[in-house]
Amino acid sequence: METSDIQDCVIIGGGPAGLTAALYLARFLRRVTVFDGQDGRALMIPRTHNLTPFPDGISGQELLGQMLSHARRYGAVVEAGTVENVEQQSGVFRVVANRRIALARNVIFATGVFNHRPSMAADDHAKGLARGLLRYCPVCDAYEVRDKRIAVLGRGKHGLQEASFLRHYSPFVTLISPDGSSVTARNGIRILQPALMGIALSETEVLLTLQDGHTHHFDTLYVALGTTPRADPAIRLGLDLDDAGHIAIDSKHKTSVDGVYAIGDVIDGLDQIAVAMGQGAIAATAIHNDLTASIS
To answer: 13: exposed, middle or buried (C-beta count within 10 Å: 0-12, 13-18, 19+)?
Structure first.
């Protein structure tokens, strides 16, 4: 394996949080490398309208492309690669990615979460996202489905909470359980009790077939099956997690291990691009100040 000399920071994850932290650290004249697995949720966004510089919206790919160019302009190194392991030796972190070893005084985890997806072919899933037939984030895009026929695929309290959030935007909200588990209707939400058996997509509709054989037509489907934090390397490093598996942090995004920070959706909070970018700025500034204090 190839080993680099010691950098100020290695960032694991090249989404909005990680790239913002890289930009700040580069402009602080710090040596920083980002390892980007290129499989984050932001890449799936067809178009977001929640970022104030882009009133006409911007796709996730275009946004990340601009952020990547911006960080590189100031000297940040961004490499495609999946981090396999992180360990600490004599106060220095050893990050292994794609048979390369990067050494750093600090590490930022910006690894995000996995969405739990419905059972369907990957190509159909991608087409559904691109057409706005499948959605995962009502905070992001419920505005775009005002007064539409909305289905929510979810269980129990979580599914009902997401359906209630969407009920603010449309009177036509239906909650469907993937396994037929029962839930009490409220707030004008329609409940379909039989379990989901199949999902089909037309050019303009989502067709959901239930266990009773009936097929129901909707304009869009929100998947509310939850997420899992992508925290495996952090777990092996011994970081504290909360009850849901998110990395635990303090107000400056420091974790339970000195020199290790966490930002973005891998921590508990509002999973939004603007929030992740702010967290990247906070963590990067804390690292810069700590490095400055250590030599003063």
So the answer is: buried
Report if pTM > 0.85. yes
- Side-chain half-sphere of 83: how many Cα atoms within 13 Å? 31
pLDDT digits (tens, 9 = 90+) for 182-192: 888 788 999 99
**Buried b or exposed e, range 139-174, using 16+ CB within 10 angstroms:** ebbbeebeebbbbbbbbeeebbebbbbbbebbebbb
List pLDDT tens digits, range 81-138: 999 999 999 889 999 998 889 999 999 999 999 999 999 999 999 999 999 999 999 9
Which bin fits 13, alpha (ψ -120 to 50), beta or left (φ > 0)?
left
Give the integer Cα–Cα distance in Å for 49 and 2: 42
